Each structure stands twice: as structure tokens, then as C-alpha cells.
């Protein structure tokens, strides 16, 4: 159903009314109309042509105006919109634009909403929209479909899941990292479904690669953020690994307005990306060489003694002692038989070592920052120790003077010095996007970045910080896992659980902080949830061992392959066996919801098609649109999209509001809200199990579960029957935890359309952000550490730059260093970089004609114009891009904004490419095996973080050539 | 427009307006996101006969802009006020109207042998299209440069289109909005040729010319036009040019930092631009200089010699802020309260 073809379209309306009026006036009255003459004769000629003008005026009247938003998981994915519908069709949407500033001193948030939101309804009526349950009528991916009934579709899916249970166990049913795109209610729904059927699922956020490992290694946590107005307090704004004009469109004005307010804007990108046009300084680092840049900057700060000594003494591991003989921290286990995580300073006041505080950061002695001493161990031996700072200083002086660092990163020594002096003396805000998480050595780049921010005292204060993506979705998590509603007393249960976990954690470590307790709870929850590390899952089930164990592609500093690290990690207990992804239990049924692995999973277009999917007897997808991956399904279940179901958004700190989503119109055809689909599926599984004489199954934890009560457990005995019930429960949860005012209700929410969050609730993110939430001021992270001196949740209890895990030591990464990207996919002359597209969130909008007409309508590869000339490539030519593994074709777009040996592209739908093979097919996604050190405190695996990112694709080396015309 | 009794209105009458609505677009804020474009398109031209029209457009500058090479297609007036001949943009110049092959790719059993691709309205693969030169710009690495050029009808004070219309179908409302009477237009397209900005589009189905109507049904309800209100970059200011309290007045008349595009076209346009302060350029040794990287000549080519003074004012005022001093101009450009940008047009559209 294309808009304008099944109902009275606007064009026809114009033709019928405007056209007909025109005909009568022109033919009967020449060039003036009766109304025109009458108005001018009265001397009131205002709007004399009102007859025709009325055509435009009258066209825009509505049956209904509703609240809308989009759970796109862009930044911030919570913009409040008004949605205009007529005759059951959404015709347009417009920003609500009434989100006030924190105070008059700061810019407000209006009019929150970008091009994707302002044209979202165009997606509802496009040809790739799914409307009816369908079953494939040919081979997988052949594109032959048969419309079937919901009953048939659910029966076939239910039987397949029951078969998987019978043949493999509950973990024969895999839910492949569902994206939050489907919305809060759908995400909670698929969570409940997976929990109750004992399914396993690769952690979505890690599978996406939105996990900043280096940040976790330093701070012990990744989720920290700010409200956008914090940028207005900065004197320097640095953006790196990001392209805000594409990806944070509605908040971009905070940058340009901070610039007008006197802030200096610095963009660090290999290419002159489109956000750079509003910078003062572009730092054109070579691809994936940011670590060298920031280590050079750090060297200058130390060399010129402009670093913030008190800050690093108090907040970081710089004064902690490291043994020279084994490169490990000196611990109490070696000194007095105490804890292995009790570490030491050297105190010149007592001329000896002193225990570093663990419960807080304050030390009332004279700890030394720089030095080397001899220490006696309890076994009578003597070892030499030095501070982390000393180790770092020596390393920087040896390898990262501005001249040496500049040679590695392509930035002049002078500019490195300029940056160091500016940053050391000004309030500096650093925004780091997720491109570093998609770069093989991105963890090193993040550690180096945080090092220079620490040396300059730039976090935990207004206008400063290392900011990324603080997202709280606990209202979703609650509905996804709870067995009780708020009204039934869930909060009391939660408080009891927290108390028990607190006791447990404190019994193991009396110095544990509240933040440690919440992180321990997150680790336990993850363990029970069926979530597994995606890299391990892909290695075991999707054939990635064939790619990731190729020695010629790995970091030359490593002696072992990914698989060998995995085996060693399991053998040594670095990896919890619950996460091993038993090779004996291969997937039998794979479910998809808003996941397009042929694009998202690097080389998914090869490995999923060739290795993973052939193992599954059933692949079914709950989707709104036909993605390249959905096209490989056995059964397609059509889902309602935004505007077609009630929902609420998630919370992203940059825009501290939640937005209401009402059902403006019915979904097309037979599409249903995901919650309804899952509830019906649960009922169908019960019915089929009964018919097949199956009573119960044993879940992964060994517990027995009945098939008969699946639907009633899914809905908590009818309490959560539909989207409206679920949103009501989510509002109740937010009110109970303080994210909303305590008396807030669904009815009030529907009236207001959006609600400013009053706190981060009791979420883990509230603790990891570690700052009091203030609705009247800009918010920023890490205030509790800097102001209240609370410890960081790391091994050293401080912001930690030295990693003494044996794998970090053997790979030469105990300290942050620069390493070139490994030659994944072979040695080729061009560096591939890029990221999110401008007009699409992932591929959601990418295949829609409305959006496709905002650019060339086909995938383009940006190539430096001079380079292209040398290679005989003209703008608009088809070019072949290839490495040792695969190839793809693009149209060339020539630009000086791309470096000579770079090629840049953004996200496209695979079926826009020849053979449906996008560049993602050749990127391999080699995960960094040292990130399997999941036993190290800050490398733990919990919700949305930890374990290797299987998504490294920035700085892959490729070759290009012009496609010769046939 | 004031019309005397029982007469066919004169061109002077059709061009007259009591007041003049104006838009300011701040190029230091525009990120080329196309939100204004989709806002306009969904409101007025999302129909089969108008897919090629972008009443509101954003293109990467320098480049051939939109419609393609409009700067080379004539129209407007010379310095003596003589109308200049102009030529009509083609369908492709107007951005084309691609169609796509979803059915073939997804539902006809072709497996992976077909890809989703655009077909030109003229048939075959597109040769050019809307926003074809997105993010290309000019310059030489490491000093590439570009900025975004949002454009719509200028609702000129001396509208060449009104002058050129043989049907007297084009007129200015009393608020200065220029409209084409769709009842009277017979599609002769003299207006298209006469408009030096080529912001009038021919509808091949209705055989009439169409253009930006500045969302007058919204204006009549004191709601800012969609492109202005829906801009997430907060680039826009809107209001009457003689309203001394309006941001448009203050930026155009008082601080003189908002200037028209191609003032030499002689039509006295009423869309004004705050020119871009570009990043610092690198010298031959790759060291940072204090020079902005967009060449002065490029900016002067677009905005005339007035651009130098406008930029000098912007830089001087920003320097005050850098030094911790106050700057009323910078605060106006920031507009902490977004609605302050829209003068009296601050109603919300519900």
C-alpha cells in the first residue's frame, strides 16, 4: 500500500478541488474571479486570491493528532513529535519542540528531531514494508514468498522451537542479538520470551560493537554521559571517532552555539568529515593512529610539567607501585599475605611503602608520584618497584615525543604541542564516538585519550569529561525480566535482592562501594539471562574460526590466535564456562527482531549464509521491513512500527526526556505489535506442546519449566496483556525509581507527551555515571569520584592506566601504546573508514525511496580526487573495492575531504549492492583476543559491556580499481 | 498587494507588499541534514507530479548546487534594472525523480541477482540528481573545504518572476510572500526562466509552475514556516524585516552579519545568510595558520563583497566571547531560547 494510491491522495485532492475551481474561474471570468473583483472593489484586497489559496489551507486538516517518537537508537532516540493522521493514514509529523533548557543560562533542546524523524512516516507506506505473515516458497534468500495465516505461521514456529528443545535443549533456540530498534515494549517482550523459553542470545550491544573497552579498562565502566548543555561550559570541545552532524543531528547545535559562546572546537578525524566544517581546528590523524596523538600530547604535558599533579595523585593509578621483575602490581599478597588487590604507594613521609586506600581515594600521607625503590617481600626476597607514572614517563620519553608521535599519527610536532598546552590549561570536553570501539586497537586509543584528560584534570567537573553514550533502559529491563508488577510489590523484592547482593559483595570485600555492588548485580544478572559474549558465539556457531584464527591477519605482537586465547582463557578460568558456547549445542532455531546481520555482523554476508544459517532448521524474523537478512527467513512475522502501537522511549542523558508514543493508526495488513506476537506465540507453544504430549523442559540452569503456563507467565496472569499495559508498567517503574516524579501516571504522560527525567533512577548507569542528577543544571559524569572521592570500580580502585593482566603484558599493552592495525584481510594500499549514514539510522531508512531521493540513491565510496585521477577513476564511475577475502562495488564520489590513501563509506543495505554484498562482507571484524581477559576486574562481562567486540572494521586495508565497462 | 477597482493589476501592484517576511539562515550552524527539505517535501510536494521539485533544498557548496548550475542559467536584472534572459532547468537539473525496483529485488524470486537501484525519471541510470555532490566540496588535502547551501524561494522585493508572468498569475501578499496562483498559471514558464535562483518548478502533470509558498497557511496562524521551525540545527530566524525586535532585523539591518545570496541578481532577495567561519587552514608545511580555509574569493562569489565585513564582525564578536567578554551578537546567534528566533511566529502547530 503506497501512500496516495489507496486513499484519496493529496494530488487528486488538489486536482479535484483546486483544478476544478481553476477551470470554472478561468473559463467563465477570464483572468479575474468574482471573489477577487468583489474584494478589490471593497478596497479589502487582502488575500484576494483566497479561492486558490484555500486549496493549500484546507489540505492540511487532520482527523487526529497523536504523540509520536522513534526508538531508532540514534542519539538520542527520544525526540517528541506530533503525528498527523487522516483516514487512518499518517501524513506527516513535526517536532513537538517544547523541551526546556536546564536554566536560562543554557540553550534549550528545541526543536528535538532530525530528518529521519521528520520523515519517518514515509517508511510506513513503502514497498519494503511487511504486512502479512509469509513463508518462503523457494530456497532461503531466493525471494519467493507465500502469504500464510497467523495461525499457520505461529504453529510452524512453535513446533520448530519444541523440536529444538527436544533435540538440543532450550539452548537450541537462539535469539540473535535483537536490536532495540523495535521499541521499549518489543525489547522487553523479546527479553521475556527468551528468558521464559531458556533461549540464548549474544549480547546485543557488544555484538554491535558499541562497547568502549579502553574506557572500561581505565574507569571500570563504560556507561557515562552528560546532558548536551554541559558542552556549553567547555572552553575546548574535542570530537573524535564521531561525526555528530550525521549521528547526533538534534544536539549538534550545542556545538555550534558553544563555538559562538567562545569555545574552541577541535575535530580529530582522518578525513575532513562533514562535522569538521564547523570546527576551528581539524586534526587530520592518520586512520587508527589516535593513540599516538594523545600519547604525544601526554608526553608534552609531563615534559613541560603542565600536568595536574594533585589530580593524578588522587584520581589515578599513577602513584601505584609496579614490580620491575614481573611487571605486576606489588600487592599485599606478596608483602604480608593480604589481598591480591591491595596495592601500594611509596610514602616519602615514612620512607617506605604504604597501602593504597581502597574504600575511597583520599590518602593522608606523602605518596610519591615518580620514583623507583627496593621492597622486601614476605618470602624474604627483595624486588625493585617503580610507580606507574615513572613507567609511563620513561615510555613516553622514549617513544612518544611530539616528533616520534607525530611520525606515527601524521600530525606535526608543533600542533601536538599546541594541543597539549591548550588542553592542560582549559576546561576540555572530549566526545568519543563508537568508531574507536570498531577499531582493532581502539581500546588503546581510548586509554591514551583518557590519559591526557587525566593528566590535564579534565573529568568530573563542569564543561569537562570523556563523554559517550549514557543510556538507561531499566524500565525496559524490569518488564523484560520481572515476575511481579510494581503494584504487586516488585520494588520490595528488588530492595531485598540488592540487600542480599550487598551482603555477599561486602563479605568478599569490605571496601566495596555501592557502585561495586550494582556492577556485581549486573554481572550476576547477565549470567542468568542467557546472554553470551558475541565473539565467542560467532566463533563457535557462525564459522568465524575460519577467519579469526588466520595468523597472517593477526596482531604480530600476539603469539596465539583468537581460538588459542579462547581455549587458554577457559582453561585458566579467565572466562566463565557459562559463556563458552558449547560447540555440542549448535543452533536449531534462530529468531530475529530488528537485526540485519548481513550488514551489521562483519563478513556476516559470508559467514551467516555459508556457516550459521545452514545449521538452523528454522529461521524466523519479527520485522517491520524486508531487510537483506529478513529475506533469508523461513517465516516472516510482520510487526507494527512506531505510530502504530503504544510505546515509550528509552533515556539518553544527552536529551534528558522520555517521550510518549501513542498508536496514531492501525498497522497495515495483518501486522501486529511485537508484544501481541510474543503473547500469541507463547500460547501457541503451550497448545502445541500439549498436543505433542510435551509437558516441561529443563532450562540452562537445570530448572524444570512447564509449557502449560507460558502465556500466563509472559503476561503475569494478564497484568501485561498489551502495549498499553506494558507502558503503564514502565511508567510505574520510572515513578517508583525516581526517574519520573513519584506520582506520575500513564494518563499524565499521555497528556504531557514527554517527561523530563528527574534522576537516573536506581539503574546501574546511575552508579556508573557517578554524579548527582540535577534538572536545573548541566549534568556530567564522574563527579562522585572527583568531589566525593569514591573509588573507581577497577582493580586499583582508581582510574587505571596500567593493566597488569598477563595477556596485556605479553602483548605489550600494559601501558597505553600505539599499534598499527593488524593486516586483517591482507595488505592493501587504502584504509577504509566511515560509519553511520546521514539519512539513515543503520539501514532503517536506507532502502526507502523518500530518503533515497535525498542523495544519489545508491552506495557511494568517497575517494580523494587526486588519487582517483591518478587511478583513472572519474566521479560517478563504478569502482571495485577488494581485499584478500572479498569484494564489492560502489559508485565513486570524488572529494578532497578524504585523505590520499583513505576511502570512506557509510552504512548501506546489502541489497543495494551487486550480489547483495556490501563492504561489510569483507571486513571480517577480528575481535581483539586480549579482551577475553574477562576475569580482570574491569574487563568483566555484564549487560552491554565486556568480552571482545566482533565488529572491528575501521582501518581495514583495501584496494580499489575502476570497473571496466562490459 | 493593493488592487484598484476593476482593473487588471499592474506589475507594480502585484509586486507591492506592505511588509516583508524574511528568513535568515546561519551557515555556521547548518549541517546539511536535509530536515528542512523533508519537512517541506512532506508538507507540499510529496506527490507523484512533484517528486522532482524541492521547494526547499540543501546542497554542498562549492558545487553545481540546486537546481544544477542555476547560477549559469540567467534571469534577474542587470545593474540598470534590465531583465535578463534565462533558460529553463531540465528534469535532471531539477534533481530528477528516481524510482526504485523493490518488487524485483525482494519479491520476484530473483535471489541476489538484482540490486536495489535508482532509475531516472527519463529512464536508465541517473546521470545526476538532487544532492548528487553531497560532501564533496573543493580544495586540496589537507585543506579541503565545503559548507552547506540551503535554498528556497527568496520572496524577492523585486521578483523577476512576477515581472515575467504573462498571465499575471504571480503576486506578492501583503506580508511579502510571493505566490503563483494555480488557477491562473498556464505553465508558460517565463517565471522559471526569469528567476535567477531557479526556485520555480514546472509540474508536467498539471502543466503549471509551482514554488515555495512560505507555508502561508501556517504563517496566517502565526506558526513559523515548516523549514524554519523544523530545522534542528537552529539555523533559522524568521520574521518581518521591519520588526526591530525580530532576530531577522537585528542580524540583517542592525548587525549586518546576514547577507543575501547573489545580490547582483538584482531582485532584492529576502533570504539572508550568516557566512561560514571555516576551520583554520594548514600551510605548506602542514602547520596550522590563522587563516580560514574557505578562500575569500569563493565566499565573495556567492555573497558579494559584503561578505568580508560580515565575517569580520562575526570574528571580532566571537573573539570577545573567547576573551570572556560579553557579545550581544553572539548571544543572538546562539538564541538560548529557540523561539526567540521567530519573532511573532511562535505558535505551535496543534
Name a few traits of the molecule.
heterodimer; A: 966 residues; alpha/beta; N-terminal domain of TfIIb; Barwin-like endoglucanases; six-stranded mixed sheet; six-stranded mixed β-barrel; 34 strands; globular; disordered N terminus; B: 350 residues; alpha+beta; Alpha-Beta Plaits; two-stranded antiparallel ribbon
Give the helices and strands of chain B as they follow along the chain: HEHEEHEEHEEHEEHHEHEEEEHHH
Shape of chain B: globular
Strand order within the widest sheet of chain B? 10-1-12-11
Query: Could you please say which CATH topology of chain B applies here?
Result: Alpha-Beta Plaits
- Biggest pleated-sheet summary of chain A: 6 strands, mixed
| Classification by helices and strands of chain B | alpha+beta
Structural category of chain A is alpha/beta
Mean pLDDT of chain A: 93
Query: How many DSSP-defined strands of chain A?
Result: 34
* Overall pLDDT metric of chain B: 96
What share of the residues of chain A does DSSP label as strand, in percent?
15-25%
Number of helices of chain A: 35
Query: In CATH, what is the class of chain B?
Result: Alpha Beta
Q: Name the chain pair whose interface involves the most residues.
A: A-B, 129 and 116 residues
The amount of helix of chain A comes to 25-40%
Quaternary organisation of the protein chains: heterodimer
Low-confidence stretches of chain A: 1-49
Sheet of most strands of chain B: 4 strands, mixed
CATH-assigned fold name of one domain in chain A: Barwin-like endoglucanases
What is the distance, rounded to the nearest whole angstrom, between the alpha carbons of the first and last residues of chain A? 38 Å
Amino acid at each position: 500500500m503506497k501512500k496516495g494510491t489507496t486513499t484519496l491522495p493529496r494530488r487528486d485532492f488538489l486536482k479535484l478541488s483546486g483544478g476544478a475551481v481553476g477551470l470554472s474561474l478561468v473559463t467563465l471570468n477570464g483572468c479575474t474571479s468574482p471573489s477577487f473583483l468583489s474584494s478589490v472593489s471593497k478596497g479589502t484586497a487582502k488575500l484576494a486570491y483566497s479561492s486558490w489559496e484555500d486549496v493549500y489551507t484546507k489540505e492540511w486538516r487532520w482527523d487526529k493528532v497523536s504523540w509520536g517518537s522513534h526508538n531508532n537508537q540514534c542519539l538520542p532516540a527520544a525526540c517528541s513529535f506530533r503525528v498527523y493522521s487522516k483516514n487512518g493514514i499518517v501524513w506527516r509529523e513535526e517536532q513537538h519542540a517544547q523541551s526546556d533548557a536546564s536554566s536560562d543560562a543554557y540553550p534549550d533542546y528545541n526543536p528535538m528531531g532530525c530528518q529521519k524523524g521528520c520523515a519517518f512516516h514515509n517508511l510506513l507506506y513503502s514497498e519494503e514494508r511487511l504486512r502479512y505473515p509469509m513463508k518462503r516458497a523457494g530456497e532461503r534468500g531466493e525471494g519467493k514468498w507465500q502469504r500464510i495465516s497467523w495461525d499457520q505461521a505461529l504453529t510452524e514456529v512453535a513446533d520448530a522451537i519444541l523440536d529444538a528443545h527436544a533435540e538440543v535443549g532450550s539452548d537450541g533456540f537462539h535469539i540473535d542479538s535483537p536490536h532495540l530498534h523495535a521499541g521499549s515494549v518489543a525489547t522487553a517482550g523479546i527479553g521475556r520470551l527468551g528468558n521464559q523459553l531458556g533461549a540464548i542470545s549474544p549480547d546485543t550491544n557488544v555484538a554491535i560493537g558499541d562497547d568502549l573497552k579502553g574506557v572500561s579498562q581505565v574507569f571500570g565502566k563504560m556507561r557515562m554521559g552528560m546532558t548536551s548543555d554541559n558542552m556549553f561550559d567547555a572552553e575546548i570541545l574535542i570530537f573524535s571517532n564521531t561525526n555528530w552532524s550525521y549521528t547526533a543531528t538534534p544536539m549538534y547545535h550545542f556545538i555550534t552555539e558553544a563555538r559562538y559562546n567562545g569555545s574552541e572546537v577541535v575535530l580529530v578525524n582522518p578525513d575532513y568529515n562533514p562535522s569538521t566544517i564547523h570546527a576551528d581546528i581539524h586534526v587530520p590523524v592518520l586512520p587508527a593512529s589516535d593513540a599516538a596523538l594523545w600519547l604525544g600530547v601526554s608526553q608534552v604535558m609531563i615534559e613541560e610539567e603542565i600536568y595536574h599533579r594533585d589530580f593524578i595523585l588522587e584520581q589515578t593509578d599513577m602513584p601505584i607501585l609496579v614490580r620491575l621483575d614481573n611487571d605486576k602490581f606489588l600487592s599485599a599478597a606478596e608483602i604480608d599475605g593480604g589481598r591480591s588487590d591491595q596495592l601500594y604507594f611509596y610514602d616519602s613521609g615514612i620512607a617506605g611503602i604504604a597501602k593504597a586506600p581502597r574504600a575511597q581515594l583520599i590518602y593522608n600521607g606523602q605518596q610519591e608520584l615518580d620514583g623507583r625503590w627496593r621492597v622486601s617481600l614476605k618470602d624474604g626476597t627483595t624486588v625493585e618497584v617503580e610507580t606507574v607514572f615513572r613507567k609511563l614517563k620513561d615510555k613516553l620519553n622514549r617513544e612518544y615525543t611530539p616528533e616520534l608521535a607525530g611520525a606515527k599519527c601524521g600530525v606535526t610536532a608543533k600542533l601536538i604541542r599546541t594541543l597539549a598546552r591548550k588542553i592542560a590549561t582549559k576546561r576540555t570536553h572530549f566526545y568519543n564516538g563508537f568508531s574507536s570501539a570498531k577499531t582493532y586497537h581502539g581500546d588503546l586509543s581510548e586509554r591514551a585519550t583518557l590519559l591526557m584528560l587525566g593528566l590535564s584534570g579534565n573529568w568530573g567537573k563542569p564543561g569537562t569529561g570523556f563523554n559517550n553514550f549514557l543510556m538507561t533502559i531499566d524500565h525496559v529491563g524490569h518488564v523484560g525480566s520481572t515476575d511481579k508488577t510494581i503494584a504487586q510489590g516488585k520494588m520490595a523484592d528488588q530492595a531485598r535482592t540488592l540487600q542480599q547482593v550487598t551482603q555477599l559483595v561486602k563479605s568478599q570485600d569490605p571496601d566495596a562501594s555501592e557502585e561495586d555492588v550494582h556492577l556485581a548485580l549486573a554481572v550476576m544478572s547477565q549470567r542468568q539471562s542467557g546472554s553470551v559474549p558475541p565473539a565467542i558465539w560467532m566463533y563457535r556457531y557462525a564459522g568465524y574460526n575460519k577467519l579469526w584464527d588466520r595468523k597472517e591477519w593477526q596482531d604480530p605482537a600476539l603469539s596465539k590466535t583468537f581460538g588459542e586465547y579462547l581455549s587458554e582463557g577457559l582453561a585458566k578460568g579467565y572466562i566463565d564456562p557459562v559463556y563458552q558456547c558449547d560447540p555440542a549445542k549448535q543452533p536449531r532455531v534462530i529468531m530475529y527482531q530488528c537485526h540485519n546481520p548481513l550488514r551489521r555482523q562483519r563478513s556476516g554476508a559470508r559467514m551467516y549464509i555459508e556457516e550459521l544459517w545452514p545449521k538452523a532448521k528454522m529461521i524466523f524474523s519479527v520485522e517491520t521491513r524486508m531487510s537483506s537478512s529478513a529475506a533469508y527467513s523461513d517465516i516472516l512475522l510482520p510487526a507494527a512500527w512506531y505510530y502504530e502501537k503504544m510505546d515509550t522511549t528509552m533515556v539518553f542523558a544527552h536529551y534528558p526526556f522520555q517521550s510518549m508514543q501513542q498508536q496514531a493508526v492501525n498497522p497495515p495488513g495483518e501486522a501486529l505489535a511485537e508484544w501481541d506476537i510474543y503473547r500469541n506465540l507463547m500460547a501457541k507453544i503451550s497448545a502445541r506442546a500439549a498436543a505433542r504430549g510435551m509437558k516441561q523442559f529443563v532450562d540452562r540452569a537445570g530448572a524444570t519449566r512447564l509449557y502449560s503456563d507460558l502465556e500466563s507467565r509472559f503476561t503475569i496472569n494478564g497484568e501485561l496483556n498489551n502495549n498499553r499495559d506494558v507502558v503503564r508498567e514502565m511508567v510505574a517503574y520510572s515513578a517508583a525509581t525516581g526517574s519520573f516524579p513519584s506520582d506520575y501516571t500513564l494518563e499524565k504522560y499521555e497528556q504531557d507527551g514527554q517527561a523530563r527525567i528527574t534522576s537516573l533512577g536506581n539503574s546501574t548507569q546511575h552508579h556508573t555515571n557517578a554524579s548527582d542528577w540535577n534538572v536545573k543544571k548541566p549534568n556530567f559524569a564522574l563527579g562522585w569520584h572527583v568531589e566525593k572521592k569514591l573509588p573507581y570500580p577497577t582493580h586499583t580502585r582508581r582510574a587505571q592506566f596500567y593493566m597488569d593482566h598477563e595477556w596485556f603484558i605479553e602483548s605489550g599493552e600494559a601501558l597505553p601504546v600505539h599499534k598499527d592495525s593488524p593486516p586483517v584481510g591482507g595488505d592493501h594500499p587504502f584504509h577504509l573508514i566511515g560509519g553511520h549514514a546521514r539519512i539513515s539510522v543503520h539501514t532503517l531508512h536506507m532502502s526507502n525511496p523518500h530518503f533515497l531521493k535525498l542523495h544519489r540513491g545508491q552506495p557511494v565510496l568517497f575517494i580523494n580526487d587526486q588519487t582517483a585521477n591518478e587511478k583513472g577513476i572519474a566521479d560517478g564511475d563504478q569502482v571495485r573495492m577488494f581485499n584478500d577475502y572479498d569484494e564489492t562495488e560502489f559508485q565513486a564520489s570524488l572529494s578532497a575531504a578524504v585523505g590520499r590513501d583513505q576511502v570512506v563509506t557509510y552504512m548501506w543495505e546489502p541489497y543495494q549492492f551487486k550480489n547483495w554484498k556490501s563492504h561489510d562482507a569483507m571486513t571480517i571484524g577480528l575481535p581483539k583476543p586480549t579482551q577475553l581477559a574477562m576475569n580482570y576486574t574491569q574487563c568483566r562481562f555484564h549487560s552491554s559491556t565486556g568480552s571482545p567486540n566482533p565488529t572491528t572494521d575501521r582501518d581495514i586495508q583495501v584496494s580499489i580499481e575502476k570497473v571496466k565497462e562490459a | 498587494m493593493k488592487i484598484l477597482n476593476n482593473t487588471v493589476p499592474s506589475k507594480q501592484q502585484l509586486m507591492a507588499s506592505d511588509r516583508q517576511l524574511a528568513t535568515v539562515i546561519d551557515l555556521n550552524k547548518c549541517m546539511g541534514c536535509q530536515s528542512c527539505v523533508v519537512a517541506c517535501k512532506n508538507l507540499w510536494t510529496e506527490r507523484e507530479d512533484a517528486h522532482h521539485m524541492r521547494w526547499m533544498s540543501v546542497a554542498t557548496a562549492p558545487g553545481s548546487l540546486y537546481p544544477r548550475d542555476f547560477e549559469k542559467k540567467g534571469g534577474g536584472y542587470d545593474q540598470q534594472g534590465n531583465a535578463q534572459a534565462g533558460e529553463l532547468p531540465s528534469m535532471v537539473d531539477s534533481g530528477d525523480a528516481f524510482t526504485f525496483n523493490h518488487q524485483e529485488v525482494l519479491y520476484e524470486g530473483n535471489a541476489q541477482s538484482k540490486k536495489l537501484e535508482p532509475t531516472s525519471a527519463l529512464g536508465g541510470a541517473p546521470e545526476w540528481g538532487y544532492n548528487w555532490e553531497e560532501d564533496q566540496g573543493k580544495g586540496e588535502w589537507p585543506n579541503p573545504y565545503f559548507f552547506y547551501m540551503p535554498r528556497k524561494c527568496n520572496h524577492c522585493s523585486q521578483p523577476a518572476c512576477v515581472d515575467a508572468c504573462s498571465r499575471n498569475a504571480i503576486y506578492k501578499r501583503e506580508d511579502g510572500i510571493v505566490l503563483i496562483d494555480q488557477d491562473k498559471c498556464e505553465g508558460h514558464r517565463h517565471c522559471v526562466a526569469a528567476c535567477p535562483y531557479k526556485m520555480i518548478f514546472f509540474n508536467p502533470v498539471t502543466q503549471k509552475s509551482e514554488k515555495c509558498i512560505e507555508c502561508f497557511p501556517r504563517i496566517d496562524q502565526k506558526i513559523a514556516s515548516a523549514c524554519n521551525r523544523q530545522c534542528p540545527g537552529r539555523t533559522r530566524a524568521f520574521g518581518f524585516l521591519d520588526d526591530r525586535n525580530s532576530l531577522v532585523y537585528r542580524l540583517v539591518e542592525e548587525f549586518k552579519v546576514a547577507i543575501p545570496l547573489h545580490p547582483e541578481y538584482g531582485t532584492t532577495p529576502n533570504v539572508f545568510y550568516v557566512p561560514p567561519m571555516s576551520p583554520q587552514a594548514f600551510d605548506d608545511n602542514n602547520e596550522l595558520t590563522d587563516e580560514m580555509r574557505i578562500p575569500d574569493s569563493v565566499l565573495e562569489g556567492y555573497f558579494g563583497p559584503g561578505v568580508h565585513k560580515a565575517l569580520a564582525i562575526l570574528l571580532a564578536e566571537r573573539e570577545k566571547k573567547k576573551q570572556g567578554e560579553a557579545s550581544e551578537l553572539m548571544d543572538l546567534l546562539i538564541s538560548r531560547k529557540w523561539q526567540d528566533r521567530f519573532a511573532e511566529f511562535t505558535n505551535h502547530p496543534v
